[in-house]
Every structure is written in structure tokens, then in C-alpha cells.
Known about the structure:
By secondary structure, the chain is α/β, with parallel strands linked by helices. The protein has helices spanning 10-14, 25-40, 62-68, 74-79; strands at 6-7, 19-23, 56-61, 82-84.
Amino acid sequence: MVLPTSFATRDFVEAGGLMSYGIDLNDATRQAGVYVGRLLKGAKPGDLPVMQSTKFELVINNQTARMLGIAVPQTLLARADEVIE
């Protein structure tokens, strides 16, 4: 039995999952690098603010949706950051 599933990262959607909504891993990695750079320049960890992701992405695998017999609304496809055909 196949179940339509939503994931937190795009990797699963690229592998055939239906959809994902979560942080943009490239942006999160860039933010981590900036944070580490501040530490290497001498900032004290206790003085740095807590960082949270600010960029999220919606990825839909339309090919998987068709295989499951799901019609994804055009409005949702238009809002997606990426649609895999």
C-alpha cells in the first residue's frame, strides 16, 4: 500500500515522495557558517543570539501525485518553490 506523505526536507521528494515543506538546507548551512565565523572571530557563544531558519521551501513531486491518483490544485502548484514533473 502506498500512502501520500509530506516530508520535512526535499531529499525525500527528489527520491519519489509526494511533497515537503521545511527549511531550505542550503540557507541553514549558510547561516551556520556565518555563526561559526563570528565564533572564530572571538565572539562568545553566550553573547550570540539564537538563530532560526528564515527561509522555508515547498517542493511537490507532481509525477508521484499522478501515480497516486491525486490532483494537486493549480493554486498549490503555483505557490510551490519547486514542482518536480
